[in-house]
Structure prediction request, 74 residues.
Amino acid sequence: LSMHKHPILNIGYLTKGELTVRSENGGKLVLKPGDPIVELVDIWHYGESTGSEDAEIIVTYVGDKTDSLSIAKE
Prediction:
């Protein structure tokens, strides 16, 4: 995924693969299957599949149906 941020809270669960999330401020989080994640809100970040199989994550967003889920950095 390219650099983006979320304006609303979202939580996820990695079902397979390995996902590395890096934030613009230098933070790094490596997720393995079964790991939960509370995504960064209003912080630029990106994720990349870093395992031997594609990463798959189930995400739930908490907000109004008119809210944007993510904003891409140009």
